[in-house]
């Protein structure tokens, strides 16, 4: 069952399971009126392999998350991963404030890529798609950098920032998908969910 934003209910033979603990992905699904029946955050090793490129890494981690979660016959599981890449360098979630500072100093005044891969799983198969966006970060002054670090908003975020938070003031330009930069590309996600048999719009 899916509750729509207007309060109406449409019946689907499948229920949505969010394979992510990200509150941002829950917020983006809610934009579509989708509220997961359950949230199951998979525990996978996100260590990059030697020489692994950012896009390949992001797709591998997303597939690993989907594979780690068993699906019941009436479930559609949605997993995703977002990776920030500066050239060939993968910039994951910083371990502490010092690493967050180092990430942001490297991103300051430069363009970088944000890759989000989405995987949708049923008992039969897995569908997967990635979206690559380009982001320009302004040159950060020492005051801006330290002020942002003090907000603690960098915690748990790839590249040490989230575009939907205070760091949005540092992003003057993007090319690509804003929701994908947040963590979930909506058009591609809808397409994959429909391919998996989820009745999103209340139509047969």
Protein architecture, described:
The strands form two sheets. Strands 3, 4, 5, 6, 7, 8 and 9 form a seven-stranded mixed beta sheet that branches. A two-stranded antiparallel sheet has the order 1-2. It has helices at 23-31, 54-68, 97-107, 142-151, 178-182, 186-195, and strands at residues 2-3, 9-10, 15-18, 38-39, 75-86, 89-91, 111-121, 126-136, 173-175. It has 204 residues and is of the alpha+beta class. The chain has one domain (2-195): Maf protein, CATH 3.90.950. The longest helix is centred in the first third of the chain and has 15 residues, at 54-68.
> According to CATH, what is the class?
Alpha Beta
How large, in whole angstroms, is the Cα Rg? 18 Å
The ordered H/E elements are: EEEHEHEEHEEHEHH
Q: What shape does the CA trace take?
A: elongated
Total helices: the number is 6
Helical proportion? 25-40%
Output mean pLDDT. 92
Strand content: 15-25%
Major sheet description? 7 strands, mixed
How many structural domains? 1
Number of DSSP strands? 9
Q: For the terminal residues, how far apart are their CA atoms?
A: 14 Å
Task: Identify the CATH architecture.
Answer: Alpha-Beta Complex
CATH topology: Maf protein
Ranges with pLDDT <50 over ≥5 residues? Answer: 1-11
Query: Which structural category do the helix and sheet elements fall into?
Result: alpha+beta
């Amino acid at each position: 069952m899916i509750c729509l934003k207007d309060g109406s209910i449409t019946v689907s033979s499948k229920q949505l399971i969010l394979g992510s603990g990200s509150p941002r992905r829950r917020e983006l699904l809610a934009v579509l009126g989708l509220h997961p029946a359950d949230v199951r955050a998979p525990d996978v090793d996100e260590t990059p392999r030697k020489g692994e490129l950012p896009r390949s890494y992001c797709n591998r981690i997303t597939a690993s998350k989907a594979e780690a979660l068993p699906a019941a016959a009436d479930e559609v599981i949605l997993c995703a991963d977002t990776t920030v890449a500066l050239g060939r360098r993968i910039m994951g979630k910083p371990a502490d404030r010092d690493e967050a500072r180092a990430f942001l100093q490297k991103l300051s005044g430069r363009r970088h890529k944000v890759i989000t891969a989405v995987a949708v799983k049923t008992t039969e198969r897995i569908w997967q798609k990635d979206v690559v966006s380009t982001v320009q970060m302004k040159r950060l002054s020492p005051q801006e950098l330290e002020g942002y670090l003090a907000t603690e908003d960098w915690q748990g975020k790839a590249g040490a920032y989230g575009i939907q938070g205070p760091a949005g003031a540092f992003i003057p330009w993007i090319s690509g998908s804003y929701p994908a930069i947040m963590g979930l590309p909506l058009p591609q996600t809808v397409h994959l969910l429909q391919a998996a048999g989820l009745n999103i719009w209340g139509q047969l």
